[in-house]
Amino acid sequence: MLNPGGWPGSDIGECDHHSITRLAAVSHVGLCDSLSLTCITIEENFLPRFMIGMVWLCAAWCAPVWADVYGFIDEQGVAHLAPKALDERYRLFKRGSLPTAQTGPAVDVSHYLAGRDTRAMSTLGPLIDSTARRHQLEPALLHALITVESGYHVSATSPKGAQGLMQLMPDTAARFGVSGDAVSEPRRNLEAGARYLSFLLGLFNHQLDLALAAYNAGEGVVQRLGKIPPYEETEQYVKAVRALYLRQGGRVLADGRLRSKVLATQLAMPTLPAWQPEVD
């Protein structure tokens, strides 16, 4: 409790319910957790109600909030705040942002960029974008994964038998509706791969690194360990895809979750911008 003892009529030690105007704040878990309320004792006859409301809004402006702050002051002088407009009375008061993770040390992805089939990248770009959006994925994330997995080489096949743009193993492709020769067909390969990636993000609570590790090493081992498996290939894979995703404007929160996925679950899924090929 903050009590400005130098103000006339202040009651040191406790808040009198008849001498203050309370703040009604609507908090949304995950977006407005850091919004804190401060009780200030002010005699009603010392300041007009409107001025009291403005004091509350100024306090909200200084508070470290993660989300946008909408609010209004009612006819009683009470300030109402929320992370989104709850009705027509709410106006945007302060624009905020979710805390993002540090990017960490730079990862060399030059060999992945140099190895891309640029003609296929240009031709397949719109199909990759639309497939990503259909499965509520960011196009930049799907492009980053494809860059590392196959370099946009449609007929790529790994020594272990993974096929196509998204390097799907036959069993995994079959789980998500594609089998036989169709696995190497770009449209079907993208569809199954995007479904798989979306499934993994949901399975691991939108934790990007865990979902990528599971895509590379299998979800079973990641579930057992609860972390990225200590395989050099998987560790490098996660770093490379993450670095390419961030280079294209992707955002990861401080707790490791995809920012776009968190916003999509808290608010409405935003319209995702079209991916733009990176120029070397």
In terms of topology, how is this protein built?
Layout: E1 24-25, H1 49-62, E2 69-73, E3 79-82, E4 91-94, H2 110-114, H3 118-134, H4 139-149, H5 170-175, H6 186-203, H7 208-217, H8 219-225, H9 232-247, H10 259-266
Parallel strand pairs: 1-3
Antiparallel strand pairs: 2-3, 2-4
Helix pairs in contact: 3-4, 3-6, 4-9, 6-7, 7-8, 7-9
Describe the structure.
The protein has 2 domains: 24-94, no CATH class; 110-266, Lysozyme, CATH 1.10.530. The chain has 10 helices and 4 strands; from the N terminus they run βαβββααααααααα. The chain has a 4-stranded mixed sheet with strand order 1-3-2-4, covered by helices on one side. Residues 1-47 and 267-272 have low confidence and may be disordered. The chain has helices spanning 49-62, 110-114, 118-134, 139-149, 170-175, 186-203, 208-217, 219-225, 232-247, 259-266, and strands at 24-25, 69-73, 79-82, 91-94. α7 packs across α8. With 280 residues, the protein is mainly α.
What spatial form do the alpha-carbon principal axes imply? Answer: elongated
Radius of gyration based on Cα positions: 25 Å
CATH architecture of the largest domain: Orthogonal Bundle
How many domains would you count in the coordinates? 2
The CATH topology of the largest domain, please?
Answer: Lysozyme
Biggest β-sheet strands, sense, barrel: 4 strands, mixed
How many E strands?
4
**Helical coverage, percent range:** 40-55%
Distance between the termini: 56 Å
Order of secondary-structure elements: EHEEEHHHHHHHHH
The amount of beta strand, in percent, is 5-15%
Number of helices in the DSSP assignment: 10
